[in-house]
Structure formats: C-alpha cells, structure tokens
Amino acid sequence: MKALTIDLLCHEAQEFSGAETGHAEPSLYGVTDGKAVGTYLEHKFRSHLLKRYSFKEGNTASGIDFPGLDVDMKVTSVRQPQSSSPFKSARQKIYGLGYGLIVFVYDKSDDAKKKSATLRITDTVFVEKHRTGDYQMTKGLRQIIENDGNVDDLMAFMVDSFQSTRSRWRTSQRRYSPTSLSRASLLSRTLSSGGCSTLVCSKRPAPRRG
Length: 210
Description:
Blueprint: E1 2-3, H1 6-21, E2 24-25, H2 34-50, E3 53-54, E4 71-77, H3 90-95, E5 100-111, E6 116-127, H4 135-146, H5 151-171, E7 190-193, E8 196-199, E9 203-204
Parallel strand pairs: 1-3, 4-5, 6-9
Antiparallel strand pairs: 2-6, 5-6, 7-8
C-alpha cells in the first residue's frame, strides 16, 4: 500500500470534501454539537485514507492525527469558526504549533423530510507548521524589528499582547482560541467542486486573524 504524503493528504482532502458535500447523513440530523460533527468527519476522513494509504495513526501520546507527517486535523463550522488548538506557550505563538493543520470548514443543514443532515464543505485548507504562529503577534514583532526596536521593545510588546489576550478570554462569553479561523481570511486558491466553493488544499500562508 502506498505511503501517505502531505501532497496526497491534500489531494484526498479535496476529493473527500466534494464527495461529503453531496452525502446525506441520518446520524447527524438534529445534531447541534460541533464536537460531535467534528468527530464524525475526522473518523470518516481517516477511514477514507486507511483504505488507500499506509500511515502512522495518531494517539493520546502523539496528540495529533498524523504524527508521521506532523499534521493535525481540525473541523470547524463556517457559522462560528474556531479551533480547539490554543497556543500552549509564548514560543508557539511566535514560531508556530510545531505541526501543520489540515482544516475542514463545513456548513451543516438538516432536511426535515428525509430526517438527515448534509455537511457542505465550504473550505479545505492545509497550513504548513511554520505558518501556524499567531498572526498579530508575529506581525507586531516584525514591525518593531523593522523600526530598529530593541529587546526591551520586543519584551514590552509581548507582555502587553499576552495580558490583552488573557483579558479577552475572561470577558468573552464564548470559547476563544488564539488559532480561531476566519473563513473570510483563508488564503488559498478557490476551486469549484460539486457546486460549492472549495479551497485548494495546498501549501499556502496560514489564515490571518483580524
């Protein structure tokens, strides 16, 4: 069996997204829990890959879905985009998570007559691991360096940034993650697939946070 590569992963993600968009799933009818939808889609895509390729599967120890490729899989709703991968350290915010991301963005709709649900995959994106840092943080640090700032300037900026982020977490009424994804800012080439707009799964810059 052929070994899975990142290029093949991206190709299969496109094919899977197009097929899933036209699939009616009774088990998801009436389901509003985003985690349940994400688990369904992740398991189905993993099964899709296992029929075609050999690869090391993720586990609790590895913490990511494709440890052999240094890639994790994420699923999020286009109506409330967010990720379950918050940064664990200042280093991750600056240098990235240490692994890449394959992201499926879906729009769920229920059919009351058929008692089934459809997940229209609106976007499929691959983010290289060195592109997974915090956009606002890295942009600010680069601007300070370009303006001949010193170490004190950099430290002051990072401290202010972390304090601001902590304050937003405490006041927000919804679960916030520094790696939240905005559909409007997903930077990849658009491809028409099955009547919906699907972003080509390719090595593109990480989505910017506004």
